[in-house]
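Lab notebook, bench 4. The sequencing result for the construct came back, and we need a structural model before the next group meeting so we can plan mutations. Quick request posted to the team channel:

Model the 3D structure of this chain.
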Amino acid sequence: MASTVGEWLAQARTLGVDRLDAQLLLARHLGRPRSWLLAHGEAEVPPAAQASLGVDLERRAAGAPLAYLTGEREFHGLMLRVTPAVLVPRPETELLVDWALALLGQQERAEVVDLGTGCGAIALALAHRRPSIAVTATDLSAEALEVARMNAHRLDLSVEFVAGPWWTPLAGRRFDLAICNPPYIAGADPHLNALAHEPRAALTPEGDGLAALRAVAAGAAARLRPGGWLLLEHGHNQGDAVRALLAGGGLEAIETRADLAGRQRASCGRRPGSAGATPPRDAPQQQVPIVADRRDSGGCAPCRTSA
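Done. Here's the predicted structure in token form:
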């Protein structure tokens, strides 16, 4: 049985665990930085840590996201607590945050809502970058809201958390910007098999994958102030459908942007009126005009970054 740092790393390799993942898990169980492991291959792993380390390596080998095993994930410069009750934040979703910040421009008193906040990643990133704006976040899951509240407390960021699906708990309220990364994978998509460790309801609304996007787009005009924006993350092959939903919901100035891999990843629309600004045209190459959908085999963002 493995007993030293080097032996445990060799065992992890035998299990098929990526070396970096194994090092991060080992460092966590030893309470040491990863750099320490590189110079102490002969160091003994205390017996008290070996059992739990073995379990974590086996879980990682079986596909459990590393973030669930370490209990944390970095997003937009913030280290967030994550649990199996929430979807692991993906790098692609940082595009939504950057786009929202650009649309807000120099507004100091804007009211923003994050629909379906999960661990709070988007809402907390916006609150961190723009402390003067008022951020509200909703989620149907009480467990997810508990994780989000814990992250807000740890980071000392002010966000109002409200329980309920999408717009439902926000009756009578209006916002300058709404942002949403809803479940959008189709229920029969085979990629879901690789994501079995994450909450299915946060990944797919079943059916064609558009149900949540439909609900959010349909309710936006009634919850946005004139000139207010709605930003949606979606699948790489859903751009046409989402733009149609935004237009059908009464929004204008609709456009889509791509992620760093060049796949259509997010779309926005504006409620008619004069309060909102025109989308900035100095955006990086992620910006994509309203064009025919560029289909490829890249899959959904969760499918490509589930670790």
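The radius of gyration is 21 Å.
Will bring this to the meeting.
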